[in-house]
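FAQ
Q: What does a multi-component entry look like?
A: The components come first, one per line:
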Amino acid sequence: MKVLPPLIVGIAAIVAWQLTVTLGRIAPFILPAPSEIWEQLVEQRQNVWEAALASGANALIGLIGGAIGGVLVAMVASRFRPIAEISIPFAAVISALPIIALAPILNNMFETTSSIPRRLTAAIIVFFPVFLNTLRGLREVNPIHQELMHTYAAGGWTFATKVRLPGALPYVFTGLRQASSLAVIAAVVAEYFGGLQNGLGSRITSAAAFTAYPRAWAYVVGACLLGLVFYLTTLLLERVAMPWRSRLI
Amino acid sequence: MTAVEIDNVTKVFNQGRSDEVTALAEVSLTVGDGEFVSLIGPSGCGKSTLLRLIADLIEPTTGTLRVAGKDAGRARRDQDYGIAFQQAGLFEWRTVRRNVELPLELRGMGKGERKARAEEMLALVGLAEFAGHYPAQLSGGMQQRVAIARALAVQPPLLLMDEPFGALDEMTRERLQAELLGICAQTGTSTVFVTHSISEAVFLSNRVVVMSARPGRITAAIDVDLPARDEAARQSDKYFEHVTAVRQALRGVPVESTT
Amino acid sequence: MRRILAILAGLLAAVALWEGYKAVGNPDGTVLFGVRVLPRADDLSMPHVWTVFQRLGRPELTGGRPVWIVVLQSCLFTLGITAAGFLAGAAVGLLLAVAMQRFRLVERGLLPYVILSQTVPLVALAPLVAGWGGTIMPPWATVAVIASYLAFFPVAVGMLRGLQSPAASGVELMRSYAAGWWRTLVKLRLPASLPYLFPALRLAGAAAVVGAVVGEISTGTRGGIGRLIIEYSREATSDPAKVYTAMLGAALLGLVVAGAVSLLELPLMRHRRHVEVVTL
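Then the predicted structure of the entire assembly, as tokens:
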């Protein structure tokens, strides 16, 4: 029952789109028809798959690298207050900047055939939300839990492993949810700035350059599916790691 | 053997600063083995502070505290007491059973033994079927019972409770009071119970200690001697007599202190 | 004040890291199993920090205007586009949020799409939206469109949460005053939504900047900072410091947008507590 309204809206939107484009005779470079896009998607599915794999690999490696980095630095920062005091405002400011603009510089630092610049861009973009959210989770401890552990004469390490870390998990996953989407976006868009062109981003630009708009849209659909897969996988992981939570968002 | 010995304890917060406050002034109290003592008084009288001093969560400014015959800090490190706060404070990421196992885990008890003891405690508080549930799935009263099971898990000689039933409704509270009495009788634990409910203090305790507003002092200690502590007792004349005595003591009317 | 000191300390640490790596790093980079894992530390790939600042002062091309003027002008150009896109996207987002709060059905039908739209790389549509330029709208407007739809989603979600934030007791109070939906909106929901709106606006602002920069690159719009970044990066082998000056410009753009939202927040959020908003 709950999925009915969005399902109806989705179907209605696609139908309306199809009708408007065909009846209104809208040119493909404005908006191709869903039927044409679907045609291209089916026809090009091998290429879409390969490009998605390449972008997906970049996004995944960037996500894992950035997330591990974010969690580790957050753990260090929660242990030493001065580091936390400095790094939180700094990280908040960096989050407001278009980090994707670093892509050309990273391309220059490595060879043109390297995948590292795209992965590094994704990792840097992923680092900040994971770091900020994890640090917040590590610092917010229920005072009752603190007192309780004191009555158990529990040491610092015990407290960290039994209270801080599990208590921080919801926050870590908030950061990971954002990070998973950002990683895909970064991996795809980084290609617009040059460098190795074997992922979805380059396919989109080249298809557009050849005015093969339905094909370009098909690759966009592929990119959107990739983003959804990453996000939904993160939601699944969250469910598995935190069986005590009933709500997801 | 005395469970708790408080000798002339004074607690001053923020000493020497502009917001200095004397929470407790020259308080002395003894709790004997197996005794159930309630601390009652108006807000700010220092009853929770006194409990925290016994638990070694804060230190006295002057005076000494001895718990289970030792210095309070030693007693905490030796885990000679169990404590329950007003908020259950369960770990939402652990099941009910694993929450009760927590103090046992910290003591290094083996896995099988922990599980058995936790289930025993949960049966004691009547929550055996909920062992695999998560705290979020339990009501407030049930969470509080789990917290009590957890406090009793190490089978401590002393139980400290800081208004544990304060956040619950009257019916649940009365039920949990009866359960607590049953458990204490069965296990023989000494208890120090902080409350601001006169009826609760009288129903549960062997002795009700009345404290005055800041600076906290003990103004009266009233022995409660009820033949039986059951539902009928709540309606008995003896019960109302004691309630009146405590109420008068709280109001400052001089009353014959029985201790 | 402490925040500013903290940020400066962070910057100093970053500069120290950069120069430190240049001092100890291998000029050819570090290669592990045939893959270069650490960048080249030579002056061509990683110019010294002060070299970049020097470059700002010198002319762009021989006999041209100083780089910093070019960068600044490009920033202003992109800022204008970003602002247009941001305002448009935020306005539509606000209206949609109000519609979703008013009509439960609209919320149920559209909110899943709005939330999920933040998870997919919609900015990948940029090269395709570029095709609209010159026909149904001027080229710069396509960039604004890209910026606007990136800004739209966080505002819609954040504002909705804000409008739904008043406790049931508050809503019932308004009902007891026989206040209709509109008055409840104006007197209760809108003021209550501000602590949720501003974090969302900050997110939307950052997204709009990214949209504008990427949009400029995809559409080839001249005059903006995106185009400048690509142009300068092409000259990186001969003039390595120039592309970094363009980076500074992009960073400045992000700061100005974030600063503008914070400035707006100042008078409106006095004595209000701040909340953490999760739009995803």
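Q: Is there any commentary attached?
A: Sometimes. For this entry: The longest strand of chain C covers residues 35-38.
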